[in-house]
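We store chain and fold; thus.
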Amino acid sequence: MYRISQLASKFGLSRSTLLYYDQEGLLSPSGRSDAGYRLYSDGDLERLAAIVSFRKAGLSVEETRALLASGEGEQSVIRRRLDAIGEQIRALQAQQHLLARMLRVQSGGELPESVDKETWVAMLRAAGMDDEAMETWHAEFERRAPQAHHSFLLSLGIPEQEARAIREWSAAAGIATPAKPRRNFPRER
């Protein structure tokens, strides 16, 4: 049997993390010592190893709890997380390519003084972003900096009502299912 501090040190965790896991129903001690100390078994150690793995993989406490509660569905939770990470990687790569191209354009002095909606969409398309990638970009912008997203949309000359509509579907896209409706972004002329 392991005391809480011994178990925590085996995984490089704090005592408070194990208390939190107990509070959240992820890992409860198997027993108590005569002095009232929490005691953990080898089975608890294996369960904590699984919890640590799931958390390092980016699974939430709720997802981790669901995985531990039932071995069934484990692949679907992990697959959803893997798909979400893939989406994030694709969005970041698209942003990286866009920024690199923007730097090239700026260094050549080819960037117009003001960028409007059509110019911005054309630059995104030139960077290799399709409608789905643009939706992801907007959803991430809205999630991370909603007011900056709004200001940016207005800076492109987008009317207030349209900017609000874009922000609404961007917020919904961040929580929607994969079968969300497509937005029609202007095509390059």
About this structure: The chain has nine helices and three strands.
